[in-house]
Design brief:
This protein has 933 residues and is an alpha/beta fold. 44% of the residues lie in helices and 13% in strands. The chain folds into five domains: 78-245, Uridine Diphospho-n-acetylenolpyruvylglucosamine Reductase, domain 3 (2-Layer Sandwich), CATH 3.30.465.10; 249-453, Vanillyl-alcohol Oxidase, Chain A, domain 3 (3-Layer(aba) Sandwich), CATH 3.40.462; 509-599, no CATH class; 618-772 and 785-792, no CATH class; 818-931, Rossmann fold.
Length: 933
């Protein structure tokens, strides 16, 4: 149970425009605790709102009462029947399920743009669909079974034998009530016809009333009514979904038209030709995309585009589909040639832009405004007409910069615009617009006011408009039947307040140019190492905004609250932020919240601290020597009788005095030995340059020079192994002069000392330039994070006077320069890979996997592989961060067969994963060393 102001305020927002502050946040661990929460809510008149990924866009995952977080304890998943089905609890990220299913050539049906952040609970509870799923592959139509906890505490397992009879016994009123509702609905021909007609298209406005017509057993009605119920009817404890084929052969094209009507007219024939995805974007969408990826032409005021993709089982079938599509394209009024591409990188870039369009628009909004997104569905044959109607309506209401895009194949349109909620007149203007949206969609097009985002709070006042009197009454009967006392997510979907969509609107004060673009969408959260320990990037930004609001409010109470939050934030927000930048890779507008934390942290440095950091940069050899000496001293103390307790007490006291510099060393923590990177003979013995036409500069990272293997770990010294494999591959190795005193600068930039980092990088840049013979030789390092910093700081220093130097990590060098030479390799049986954050950010995962596959018969990349949380020295200073961050990946590794070579590309990441898994990790370099013939 989390009840501090920081906990509650940090979770007061989802991806919508609403902010409600929960009174408490709870994390139930199992069904018994959840059942206890239900009983408590009944006994005390309290209300429960469930949250998984918090990517909800309509305000269904915020509350001013009890917020129930599910991501932390409900994250189990299993692939069934060789990928034909998958079982998952609500806290599993949808993208993780697809990674688990990838070897089987299947995926889950729903594919929302938020799939890498949205979790199963929200995907099913909102009946998410997305780019390709349409209606037939959404959650409703792919649901096979579910376990549901009803509001009265009854547990329903629809997969169990005799489950319908058990439901009749355990919940007779609900069982009978569902049968009665079905009979009455079937007897009302007009209402039944309207339900059937509306669910032939995308529709998530209110409940899945089609369940009353599609199924005869109350059990089946129940679990399908749970789909799209937004947490208002019960708790989905797990689901089993039927998967859909995931054709591997794909071709994608971006088609440009001079007129929106032309793009709309092309949708039906392209769909008939077999297009798996058709995404329409108006000129305002294209202008937004051009801010992230400029087009080689001017975007006209009426221009539009279609993103088209064909998917087939094999290359031959794909060629046939593309040929049909190209014949069709020859008849369409395209403004320019639009070749289809099968290149994965180009296809991924096109889809990355489309999936990130909503957050990108949010980043472009004026400061202090919110980004509004709504989605509707209209008959696909009237798509272009509807887009024109929307555009005219936006102009009338003063929203001329509104953007319209969507899933054209399904007639599903999204519209987005910036909205200022700080003035009452602006709120009224927004309310008038939504009123006209409802009238237009319902009366002219008989469409759906919510196609895939769920009704939430934003469309709750208009549910009656879409469903009419009889349909609205039926919706209320469903709610009363499942939750008669209204304890579950009140105010969502069904709400008698006609102004509910205009209450509790977010404030988005300016806090930093770095973070002001954030719309709190939550895409970043699954990649954050501290997500299960303290706070996430979204929460860090929300809390920082709250503190800015409190500072603006002023007064003793506001200042006292701000100070309390700031005290907790020192650990919850700052100390446990890994600053690994992975949140930026998931953010469509590349907001790196770690950089924000560095910015805030750096502002607190005293001039004395900055001078000390610059001294350390200039005398890095002494600093590294001191670190090695500290490891030797720690090992010696621990070897003494009672030494473990002594070391724990001494390090704990020192850590309290300098928590950002001195690590805690619990007696149970296994410490690495001090490094002896060169082996016998030392560095001098490695200074030979083998006669070779191909020379490479080797820059051993400071980690390699400082941190050695764990006690008992039998691997060769990393630097010696590196030189050996380079020479075996036929390269002459050159070491830079003054190596012991060189640092890439990461040790200082990670501590928010940018001046010291630049000073360290400058010295290293000149040494590497000299060793590379003026840029003629590539530079390779053994640690991916070191390579990333070299590419940032060292390359920037050299670029000032036009110098260019190839700076590579080992996977990139080995895959690009050594493996093409065909070295003799004796493969090991199996390798397990942990990719470092920087390697992923540099786009090096493919190189790492290519290297691992070249040296191992089988390679396993855990589906949950993310940042291990060691983050330089965080694993020493805040070891609980590593324990939390690596827990799920470690569980997947431990479930693998024993005897695999466990590898990564950074010494501290190897230490972190060794702790988490309980088996030693080593470097990719050492795998290569073992397997080269």
């Amino acid at each position: 149970m989390l009840a501090r102001p920081l906990d509650r305020l940090g979770r007061s927002a989802d991806a919508s425009i609403y902010r409600l502050i929960p009174q408490v946040v709870v994390r139930p661990r199992d069904i018994d605790e959840m059942r206890g929460l239900f009983a408590y809510a009944h006994a005390h008149g309290r209300h429960l709102t469930f949250r998984t990924g918090g990517t909800s866009l309509s305000g269904q995952a915020v509350t001013d009462d009890i917020l129930v977080e599910l991501a932390h304890h409900w994250h189990r998943a299993r692939v069934l029947d060789e990928g034909r089905r998958v079982w998952a609890q609500p806290g599993v990220v949808g993208g993780r399920l697809n990674r688990m299913l990838l070897p089987h050539g299947t995926r889950i049906g729903p594919d929302p743009a938020s799939l890498e952040a949205a979790m199963v609970g929200g995907i099913v509870a909102n009946n998410s669909s997305g780019m390709c799923s349409g209606v037939v592959q959404n959650s409703y139509h792919t649901l096979e079974s579910a376990t549901v906890l009803l509001a009265d505490g009854t547990l329903v397992d629809s997969a169990a034998d005799g489950a319908d009879a058990r439901l009749r016994q355990d919940a007779p009123a609900l069982h009978a009530g569902l049968l009665e509702l079905r009979a009455r609905t079937l007897a009302d021909a007009a209402l039944a016809g309207r339900i059937r007609r509306k669910f032939t298209r995308k529709n998530t406005t209110a409940y899945s009333l089609n369940a009353l017509l599609d199924y005869e057993r109350p059990l089946d009605m129940l679990i399908h009514l749970m789909v799209g119920s937004e947490g208002t009817l019960g708790f989905l404890a797990d689901v089993t979904l039927r998967t859909v084929p995931d054709p591997p052969a794909r071709a994608t094209a971006l088609l440009f038209f001079a007129e929106l009507a032309q793009a709309g007219a092309a949708v039906v024939p392209l769909s008939a030709a077999g297009a798996a995805a058709l995404e329409i974007m108006d000129s305002a969408s294209l202008h937004a995309l051009a801010s992230a990826r400029p087009f080689p032409f001017a975007v006209g005021p009426r221009m539009a585009a279609l993103l088209v993709e064909f998917r087939e089982a094999d290359a031959e079938a794909l060629r046939a589909s593309v040929a049909r599509a190209e014949a069709l394209l020859a008849t369409l009024p395209l403004t320019r040639e639009a070749p289809f591409t099968t290149e994965p990188a180009l296809r991924d870039e096109l889809w990355r832009l489309r999936r990130g369009l909503f957050p990108l628009l949010g980043a472009l909004r004026p400061p202090g405004t919110a980004i509004i997104t709504e989605d509707v569905a209209v008959p696909v044959e009237r798509l272009a007409e509807a887009v024109s109607d929307f555009q005219e309506m936006f102009v009338r209401h003063g929203y001329g910069d509104a953007v319209v895009f969507g899933h054209a194949r399904d007639g599903n349109l999204h519209f987005n615009f910036a909205q200022d909620f700080r003035r009452p007149r602006e709120v009224e203007r927004y309310g008038a617009l939504l009123r006209e949206v409802a009238d237009l969609v319902v009366e002219k097009y008989d469409g759906a006011l919510k196609a895939e985002h769920g009704s939430g709070r934003n469309m709750a006042p208009f549910v009656r408009d879409e469903w009419g009197h009889d349909g609205y009454a039926l919706l209320h009967e469903v709610k009363r039947l499942f939750d008669p006392r209204g304890i579950l997510n009140p105010g969502v979907i069904l709400n008698d307040d006609p102004q509910v969509h205009l209450h509790n609107l977010k404030s988005l004060p300016a806090i930093s140019p770095l973070a002001d673009r954030c719309i709190e969408c939550g895409f970043c959260e699954p990649r954050c190492p501290s997500r299960a320990l303290t706070t996430t990037p979204r929460q860090r930004i929300v809390i920082t905004r709250v503190m800015a609001d409190l500072r603006e409010t002023g007064g003793p109470e506001a200042e006292a609250l701000r100070e309390e939050i700031a005290r907790d934030f020192t650990y919850e927000g700052d100390a446990t932020c890994a600053r690994d930048g992975m949140c930026g890779t998931a953010c469509p507008v590349r907001i790196d919240t770690g950089a924000l934390m560095k910015e805030l942290h750096g502002a607190s440095h005293t001039p004395r601290a900055r001078r000390a950091a610059r001294w350390a940069a200039r005398h890095f050899g002494a600093v590294a020597g001191g670190a090695r000496a500290a490891l030797r001293v720690a090992a010696a103390v621990r070897a003494l009788p009672g030494g473990g307790a002594l070391l724990e007490a001494a390090s704990g006291a020192a850590h309290r005095l300098a928590p950002r510099l001195v690590p805690r060393l619990p007696r149970t923590m296994e410490l690495p030995r001090a490094a002896n990177p060169w082996g016998p003979g030392g560095e001098a013995a490695q200074r030979r340059e083998a006669p070779s036409a191909a020379k490479v500069v080797y820059f051993p990272s400071c980690l390699t020079r400082t941190v050695g293997p764990l006690p008992g770990q039998a691997v060769p010294p990393a630097a010696a192994a590196m030189i050996a494999v380079l020479e075996k591959a036929g390269f002459g190795v050159v070491l830079p002069t003054g190596l012991s005193g060189l640092c890439c600068g990461m040790a200082f930039s990670s501590k928010s000392f940018p001046e010291a980092a630049q000073e360290a990088a400058a010295g290293t840049a000149e040494a590497l330039w000299a060793a590379s013979d003026g840029g003629r030789r590539p530079v390779v390092t053994d640690a991916s994070p070191c390579a990333g910093t070299l590419q940032d700081l060292v390359a920037a220093h050299l670029a000032r006077d036009g110098r260019v130097l190839a700076l590579l990590d080992f996977p990139a060098f080995w895959a690009g320069h050594a493996l093409p030479r065909g070295p003799a390799i004796r493969k090991c049986a199996r390798a397990v890979v942990h990719p470092t954050c920087t390697l992923v950010k540099m786009g090096g995962l493919a190189d790492l996997m290519a290297c691992a596959r070249a040296h191992a018969e089988e390679v396993f990349l855990p589906p949950s592989a993310e940042c291990c949380g060691f983050a330089g020295d965080r694993g020493f200073l805040v070891p609980e961060l590593t324990a939390s961050a690596a827990a799920r990946e470690a569980e997947e590794v431990r479930a693998e067969p024993a005897g695999a070579f466990l590898l990564s590309t950074c010494r501290t990441c190897e230490l972190g994963m060794s702790r988490a898994v309980g088996q030693p990790y080593a470097s990719l370099v050492q795998l290569v060393h073992e397997t080269l013939a």
